[in-house]
Every structure is written in structure tokens, then in C-alpha cells.
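Example record used in the benchmark description.
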Amino acid sequence: MIAKGSVLAGVRRAAALAGALALSACIATGPVARPDPADDAVVYVIERGWHSDIGLPADEIGGPPARLKQSLPGLRVLTFGFGERAYLLANDVTIGGMLSALLPSRSALLVTALRASPEAAFGAADVVVLHISRAGLARLRARLWHSFELSADGRPVVIRAGPYPGSVFYAGTDTYDAANTCNTWTATLLREAGLPVPTAGVVFVGQVMGVARDIAARQALLRGRG
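Model output (C-alpha cells):
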């Protein structure tokens, strides 16, 4: 979920503590392949409070998801965040609304168009760059597209404009609940891309970012070995 307002401060601190307790397990669960410059694509993993986003460079958004970047001149990156629909669309955040989001409910996706780099938009400390194969990119895009509810003519269903310039809320198909949070969703997409990211028991942003940073470090080491 995307953090909103000071009402979340106490819950965010508790989540951060729980996430920190899980960091000891936040390493990749399998070998990391050496990035191949001839077969290389990039995916961004972005930490936003207790929420994680996936980002893709505009020139790597092909196939059906390319519809999302139409009429966006100057686009550099699209970011995708998954969340509980009622919570994301609420103007005011309440404890009751937060608790109800833990029960199985409808989802939404917040898509944001960036005309700057993710590092410039969110801060370099909150962005991890991972390398995947072109085949992995195709699988990630397919799983990402599956997350969108489509209209009869095959277009993503728009709910309304998002809270930031260039952002839009779309209806999602996946169920949101305590076992399938925004961070579970991010981990699922990364695993679909071929990265050794665990998905079982992933709830907190620290779990996703810990694994992402571990993989990025291993990829950098492999590249350094030539």
C-alpha cells in the first residue's frame, strides 16, 4: 500500500521493525546469472515508504503493456504499484480502512509516468537496478499485464487520475489481502522475470528491497569479474 498522512506513522514504524526482523532472510534463494550485455534488460525496484513499485524503461515496455505509454511524450520510465482498491482511492486514511485492507478485496494499480530517472524522482537510496534477460522481461510484462482488468475491447480499465502528475489508477484483477500485499506482488513479478526472489511470506518492503539489493550486489560482482 502507499503510505498516506501521519495516521500511518505508528503503523509504519511497527512495519519497519517487523521488516527489520525479517532482513536476515532477505537474500536471493538461488544462483544469480551473470548479466549478458547482448541479452540485457533493466527493471527498477523502488521503495516508497512501506510500499514497493516496479519500474520499466519506456523502450522496454512492449507488447500489450505498450498501450499504457501512448500519448506520453518524453516518457522515460513507467512505474507500477499494486494495492487494495478502496484504500488507494480513499481521501482519508483510517485505522478501520487499513485493517479492512488485510481481508480479501479488490485491487488497483497506480501507474506513474516519469520524465526523469527513478533515482531523480525517488532518491538513489530508494531505487535498485536489476538486470534481467529479454525472455525474463517478456515474462514480467505478461504477468504485469495479467494484473490489469481489461474492458471488452482489451484496454485497461481506468478508475481515475492518480495523485501525482502523469499518474493513473487502473482496476486490478488480483485479490489484495494480508498474504498478497503490494510487496508480495513486486516479488512475484521479479521471480517471473527469472530472478531468485522468494515470494512465500513476503509482506514487508524490507523483505523485497533486501533481496533486490542482494541480487544487485551479486550482479555487479559478476560483471566485475568480466
